[in-house]
User: Fold these one by one.
Assistant:
Number 1:
Amino acid sequence: MRLPARPLGRVSGWLLSLLGAAVATGCASDAELDTFAPQGPIARELHSRGVLPVFWIAAVVLVGITVAMVWLIWRNRVKNYEGDDEWPAQTHGHVPLEVGWTVGFFVTMAAVAGIMLWSLPTVDATETNLMGVTVDDRSVEWEPTVVVVGNQWWWEFRYYFSDQVDLADLRAHGDAKTLPPADIVTSGQMVIPTGEEVELILTSRDVIHSFWIPALNGKRDAVPNRFSPWKIEASDPGFYFGQCTEFCGLSHSRMRMQVVALTPADFQSWVDDTTQDAVEPADPAALAGLEVFSGICTSCHVIEGVNDDVFESADQASGAAPNLTHLASRSTFAGGIFNLYNADGSLNRVQLEAWLRNPGDLKANYTVPGKQYRGMPDLDLSEQQIDDLVAYLAGLGNRPADWIIEATQVE
Amino acid sequence: MAITEKTPLELGPGDTARYVERPLGVFTRPQGGRGWRDWLSTVDHKRIGILYGASAMFFFVVGGVEALLIRLQLAAPEGSVLSADVYNQVYTMHGVTMVFLFIMPLAAAFANYFIPLQIGARDVAFPRLNALSYWIWLSGAIFLNTSWIVGGGGADCGWFCYATNSGVAFSPSHGVDFYAIGLQILGIASLVSSINLIVTCLNMRAPGMTLMRMPVLTWMLLITQFLLLFALPVITVALFLLMFDRLFDAQFFNPDAGADPLLWQHLFWIFGHPEVYIIILPAFGVVSEIIPTFSRKPLFGYEFMVFSGIAIGFMGWGVWAHHMFVSGIGPISVAAFSLSTMFIAVPTGVKVLNWLATMWGGRLRFTVAMKFAVATVAMFTIGGLSGVTHSVAPADTQQTDTYYIVAHFHYVIFGGGVLGLFAGLYFWWPKVWGHFLNERLGNWNFWIMLVGFNLTFGPMHILGLQGMSRRIDTYARGYGFEFWNMAATVGSLLIAVSVVVFMWNVVKSKRDAPHLPPPGPDPWDARSLEWSIPSPVPEHNFDTVPQVHGRDDWWHNKYAENDEGTVVRVATVEEAAQTGEATGVHLPSPSFWPLAVAVGLPLIGYGLIFNLWLALIGALLTIASLYSWAMEPVDDPDATHDHHDDEATEGSSTEGDQP
Amino acid sequence: MSAEPLVADHGHAADEDGHDEHATTTGLSHTKLAMWVFLGSECLLFGGLISTYLLYKTRGNGRTLPTDVFDIPFTSVSSFVLLMSSLTMVLALSAVSRGEDEAGRTWLLATALLGGIFIGGQVYEFTTFVREGVAFTTNPASSAFFTLTGFHGVHVSLGIVMLMSLFVASVKGKLTQRNAETVEIVGLYWHFVDIVWIFIFTVIYLIPAD
């Protein structure tokens, strides 16, 4: 489901064709974050209503003013002005003209205002769209909603099927650090059903982040102590990239996220898989890994079926670390910045091991002993422990579909 | 009008002799002179203007180096020139430096130097407060930058420094403390200066200089001062809250205690948006002086230019939350602020068309100053229109916090503000220094800067729309960011070259000056009062305070329009200009106390951060200096210079009266 | 923002040539105009602080709110005292401008004294609040409360310093009818600070938290 490769991304294409320039060599890319390539009805409408008309208006005004200016320069320029004593007619102003262009600008801006009011509902109004989901053999009418929680420097996605969350309720009593238990808690990659408007409820556990999947909608900030509504929708199954866009400290640039849109049927099977607790591994290396995990990692990370019943809070400024129950079902790790699988489908052992060796080498963090950690500290693991952990982690959850793994590979 | 500051209340008329003891007996009262020490005690608005300008250019280089580091880091994917931590500090300090330590003081340089000259005054209303403003500004600037050395690095929270990322938990170095306290010190400087200049503008205009005869530069600077006056207290509140949170465990931005991080954003942008106009309006004023002069026509629609400036000043207060369209402030607020933002484009557009109408039918002389001025209009138009595109709030959800915004505000601030002020530098250089800047080097400076600027910031529009976030220290391969980032980096190097050319021009022009004919009082055949006096401007500005009869009064002293509307010369510049040879002009005496007060403030700052005893020392120094200041007479009875005859200056007629 | 630079300049109200009033464009002296302009700026300072408090006044984080410990009768009395100081300030100005130095000194001292009583009351109020569990760092509401009223207290204290400077100048015979404008300018500041307090008292103390 990879997007078709475009030589420059639509933005460049649009602008370049407008300017009549062609500087296209050596910059081929897929431009996954391109804001001019909407992939869902919300983003499409936002683009066609909110973005393009005002761009055209601005372009026309710009061309008008620039042409006038160039013409004035060309026409009125006195090349050799040394010794030029001539004075042109001394006009001081012209009130009707002034009134005319004031009104002209006013009308233009009123048109822009109309565009704004016309396009505002596309990003703001939400619809009621219940979809049937089966959770633990129980059918529920789910209003597609995901609670999105920003943390330094990763996103958590919480799905509530059984006890559905309500924005007003969260706003009245919610606390990002003690959210009610969810049916699915995942991170880095949000899985949504296609063809459904998915409401997002954004909040943060530490600093302000901003959630942005350009292909599916604009962005909205995740503000601590606030719950903000947002929505996304994907028309087709696919893999959509995002990047935190509100400066959130040290590793702001390494806080990425993806949306995986699945057909409702695939989504149901993802729910079926992901609501399961982790099972005890059979492989001895993985068993040793579980032991390492239980001894060290459980102070921050949760694996359902291992430590979810005793876990209270991570030793982090945010009080949380990614839930790893179904780590292997995601195609990226460490805040959406590394591929968990290579292009050929094999585990990306190299980076996973390097990460476990010292996360700070791969992603800037703040882990001064004695102060609240922000990011995963160096755990001083032995190579044996790392091997065991990798064996264990690789077995947490089902490997994602090949097209997802392929789409992850940005380069 | 010779007297510009009042004597202490102890002194009655004629009893100066009673005042013999020296304040505190510490310093000998400085006397006027031309050595370097005299710059420390000067209260001359022109020297203070020069001090502002020179310091601003120094910090332009500092901020420029920071910009180059940013561009080098981002030239290619996975850049490793800077670590993430250092990158965050560098981009923060780049913004803070360019806004507070470069463009604001450069505008202050123009304000200090030219407001009194353009309204026909001999100095500002409070000359010593003027010196105080500069020294406080400088001490704040130095204080802010010492955080690199003693604060464990610069602030790393962005110039906007959003809570909660600015809290101790998330920014544990002292950088943010230096930011919070440094900006407060700078704020005191700007506040004092704005009060001073407002009083100057309102109270010290030459006879006949009504408000609607003031040159547009002075008008725009006056509006700027009002914006500062009302914007600074708001950021001061925000900075106090931040400082109390960080240093004294207050709970203003602690979400765990129920605080709302958006409080900071509201306070910051209620200051921050007027700040945009504080940056741009002085450049508008400069352009409004230069384009008429070199079009050889009066400014088209003076009243509309003035009122659109005022309108921008007013409307600038009602748009702040357009910086917060994605913060979650609710659809009603978003719609309201989106609308108000759109309509601020109306007066701005009116300005652009008036500049064009001024050029209409003119005889355009493309000196370097004119080139910069016209480029300012062109580049600002691009920045303004890209602003219109994201005034549409839904579109802004795609564009905000991307490089599209970086491109937008650099077109406004660099394309509008910096190019405009460079135009001013080339235009007024002969007035200030008595020699021209070299036009040939100026052309190089202009073209390299224009090309470099567009190459740096033009591609950022594309990068932003391609989805490149702001404030990221690296980007991954494969998003299509590589090419345009490299282009932007090349462009930034070109800008650096153009600044070096400018510096070289300054040196070379000075060196060549003795071999070239002096510019005389009015080299450009210009329009406002500062061109009626010699270049460089004599210490007392005007031999006699001019009597003003209309707009562009100086031009009308040289020319008249006959019945057919043709311009005829009625006097040469030499005939009409003042000679600068007056004696007996009474000038305020210099003082060291403004400097002493200013030294105390950063000590208080360091003290708050490191050791409260140091703050006590700083406070004592400040209070003692203020006390000594209050006890020091405005005019030194022992002054040796010969400017002590008041009556000679009271005449109000000029030899250049209009026919 | 700092009021010091202006305080320093208050000493300069007298004009050497005695014609400055007529020489300025507006007819107002530079210093008086500067004070008006400065007070305009101060409005936004207090506006920001008051807004902050109003936003936070119910955010107690489960601990005692300032509104829970307000002693309205006590604060009413101290507000009344501050209000009366505006009256004595007017009397001081009128005495000085009539050339009645002795009376002027008395009223200046009375004004400073009433200001001092208000500050004393504020110190007492603060210490009581802290004892009752509302300290500066207790919750957003308390931080905002102490910051707002503290800023106001600092402004009153600076006003007292100005008044005492005028008093000393008068004792030394340096404050005469001719300098009455200095008293007027200090008076402007003093009345402003009073008016701000009326606003704070009404909005912060009298309107209950919901």
Number 2:
Amino acid sequence: MKLYLKIWRQKDASSPGKIVDYTLDGVEGDMSFLEMLDILNEELVSKGEEPVEFDHDCREGICGTCSLQINGEPHGPDRLVTTCQLHMRKFNDGDTIVIEPFRAKAFPVIKDLIVDRSAFERIQQAGGYISVNTSGNTVDANCIPINKHAADEAMDAATCIGCGACVAACKNASAMLFTSAKVSQFALLPQGRVEAVERVQNMVRQMDLEGFGNCTNTGACEVECPKGISLTNIARMNREYLSASIKG
Amino acid sequence: MGILDSKIPAGPLADKWTKHKNDINLVNPANKRNIDIIVVGTGLAGGAAAATLAELGYNVKTFCYQDSPRRAHSIAAQGGINAAKNYQGDGDSNYRLFYDTIKGGDYRSREANVYRLAEVSGNIIDQCVAQGVPFAREYGGMLDNRSFGGVLVSRTFYAKGQTGQQLLLGAYAAMNRQINRGKIQSYTRHEMMDLVLVDGKARGIIARDLVSGEIERHSAHAVVLATGGYGNVFFLSTNAMGSNVMAAWRAHRKGAFFANPCFTQIHPTCIPVSGDHQSKLTLMSESLRNDGRIWVPKKMEDAVAIREGKLKPTQIAEEDRDYYLERRYPAFGNLVPRDVASRAAKERCDAGFGVNKTGEAVYLDFASAIKRYGKEKALTSGIKNPDEATIIKLGEEVIEAKYGNLFQMYEKIVDQNPYKTPMMIYPAVHYTMGGLWVDYNLQTTIPGCYCAGEANFSDHGANRLGASALMQGLADGYFVLPYTIGDYLSSDIRTGKIPTDSKEFEEAEKQVRDRMEKLMSGTGIHSVDYYHKKLGKIMWNKCGMARNAQGLEEAVKEIADLRKDFWENVKVTGTMDSKNQELEKAGRVADFLELGELFAKDALHRNESCGGHFREEYQTEEGEALRDDKNFKYVAAWEYAGEPKDAKLHKEDLVYENIELKTRSYK
């Protein structure tokens, strides 16, 4: 199929960017979206032009490196997939596709389609862990029985790949879904309860410091999340935060 | 003993590690504050090591090319992590895990290392649970297990099909705790360009900030390389796009021996290649072989009809299917080790029974598991005399709970519903058992340069068992390296900060700059990927699942020629002093072009078949691997001497005191 691409090009963080038009022929349905961009880049390199830079790594939907706002949607039109798992069979011959970086104040553009998501790391560093030494001198794993439903729910929250689609989807560029997934994983497990009060307060404080917006419950994040992280996590985080404020 | 001293402690196998820990030198807490350690790579091995070293009090700097340590490719490990907990009461023990690993590795790994691995395996699970890793559980709240290839017990712990992700997030959480305390400085989007040696010791690295393009000098008292495997030398593999051998290869060029480069794992259950545009391959976890049955049609005409799209797999009667693994290996069936399963798939496809349009695919079928689980679920749900549709519905729910994310991934890529029609799979490059040679302390042949996880060669011999990579990465990082590195650093307590303005750092930086300039100066028309794909084709065709002397000799020459062409002609766009993904790729491919040749040379010299290394000249009448313990019971460690073809071989004889060498049989 033949595609008309409108791609955001930006030299570096301090330069202004703009949309550049490209026409690409010979795209097949079995290609992933990133393989389509590989082909475009191969063409650009052969013409001596600089290829379009984009973040990607595992290309199997788990590392959370790939991003891209495709026709206005993070990770494109398909549901429950990252851009690397989006296949060109979701598009038609002659389509125009607009490709932009994830947009948020807290995610500044580094180059072309690459953004800086280190704000997410700082939120995790503020408290996204259980303060246990890695010495191995812990109790036997089965000394802490955990209700299967709680374990499964914690796992569902822990599935978050930290890609930033929730922020890019949100009109407020809120990071509530991401932060709440991290808070929830620990809040649901007995090991995590010990530090629950400090954790939620520290992580929310850092989230606000990074310049993310607030949550107004539109639910766009949940729709666009490639891992299906539920809005319930935000409710849980609000509950944790409220009870922490009273206790703390 | 020669030049390679494995430093295996004396004494009975089961006491070696405890005795060693008691004997080695320690660094007191006040002195640890004055010692710097660089950890390159932040997957399970690097992340765990960094967190633990920082927790002990050392000053740690971590480096990763990804934008976050948590995106290292350990994250993609699906199936699980082994540990000899014996929670299932099925007779598991440290010894059994040790024995299975040695046997699975086709008797080409070190007894002492593997026993230590088994010994600390249980601790890993305790540790991870304490950190909040949400492992799968049974209804009683206890941890659940499943079974993996090459073993007869259930010792694999898992978190859905995302075990690597959860373990890495656990290690990253431990890192975050130390980053928050200021004990780890995390350098992301940074690539190690070279290792710096001062007075023969590893004292730092030259790194490139991939965003600004700036070249930086970082010093330390010791350097840990935990940079993963080199599967991407094949271009197509299940590795991440950025996975590369640069750090290990740079160390090799500075004096670290490279061991068993030809020992590569070709994983049997990956999604088949769909066309020339393919950029990477996707694994379908080995755990699927717990419930999936592998087959091809018995009749050639059926296979042909399927390839032509005239017949569907579901239309083929039970008696016309060849469940070839169950037929050939009744004892282990679909759960034979990976090398055996891969070769068996290749054998059937080469014989003309492949089931996709390229003829390179076999079926992985869940129909009978869905029925089995459906019946069981109907009974436990109190449904008497359930009809077929109910059974299938219930069975699919069980399968979804176990492997849901894998099935979804398959459907997204292939556009077929694996609940209704069997998956198609084919072997693909997945893991490299070879790597930098290390002694029992995980130190390379360069003093002060350590190597952990997949990047080293130590524990898996010629074939790795499923769910053992995660175990090794975390064992090295949490429980081995933090002890053994102290022994080396205990002599460094008076050294003080290592300056970065020495001539050694200056020279190393200059070499890095010169090399990059040379890469940028190519005058040809072909991109980096063009060369990478060409290299991959040579590797896959001549150094892949089956190798022979003639093909390997050709490969050695073809790779050398390709390398020459690359250095003269490769076209790299952009500039050195800015973000430049083409330049990043070029540096990595340049090193693959050297490693690939050494790989072929190693495969050519090893005149035997063992594990993942299958030489067509050395096989039994039944087509099984024919090992030669008399002549090849050793680790081949290669010393850099200019061109890969000149690399000098050193042998570390493998001594088996606790296990009798046998022909591996899974029949």
